[in-house]
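Quick check before the chapter quiz. The format below is the same one you will see on the exam, so make sure you can read both the input and the output lines.
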Amino acid sequence: MGRVTERRKVLRIRDGAVSSRPDTLVTEEPLEIRLNGKPLAITMRTPGDDFALAAGFLVSEGVLGTRRDLRNIVYCAGATADGSNTYNVVDVQTAPDVVIPDITLERNVYTTSSCGLCGKASLDAVRTTARWPIADTPKVRVSPELLAGLPDRLRAAQRVFDRTGGLHAAALFSEGGELLDVREDVGRHNAVDKLVGRALQNGELPLSRAVLLVSGRASFELAQKAVMAGIPVLAAVSAPSSLAVDLAAEAGLTLVGFLRGGSMNVYAGEDRVALRAATAQG
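Here is the expected output.
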């Protein structure tokens, strides 16, 4: 199976001094996801937790919702011409009674690109396939102080980032700030899929009392994944996209961006942020 990191020789230049040394890089390899034997999608990912990644991806696509929907996930042998197993192709087998939605190429393109070209259609697709309307779940309340402490805790839990500097991460926290799970990957969306997939495998969906924190920005795709997993709060250390804000407002998702130190912007769902005396200024 593919490794999480690889070593490459680099030319290092520091203040005019030149040296040759090995450097540790994050591994990036394609993963083909097949659904009941039929090719469905290809994503570039860091090897590891591949079954969880595939399961989480199918949660976001509206295929899986409970552990009972999932019959099995296997690596496909004979994925190459010589019949060897590359561990880069997985086949997800659903339970016989699972109804497979129409996942067309067109839908996959605009669902994963976050380009906004099909904004209304994207919002409609999430609205019609979401199993757990966030607006109907019990209200989670989180304080700014709790949110402010989460990025440092996420960074401390990133084991591979310390060696490579090239990985994104996503973490699930309880509403009380307890770290529930953390995953790393070359792609933010993959890290979230691994979290959601593990939750599905453990029978923990919907994640209706969880806070999702992602490194980097909050795209439409990440907001979609939070909504499809029933997560009420999504926080990011960088900016959200306009379509992510639109989706959050429509779905009732609390969306926090630019979470750095004690500063943050709340773009939607501010009713879940427990403020002290009102100090908001125009």
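If your answer matched, good. The radius of gyration is 20 Å.
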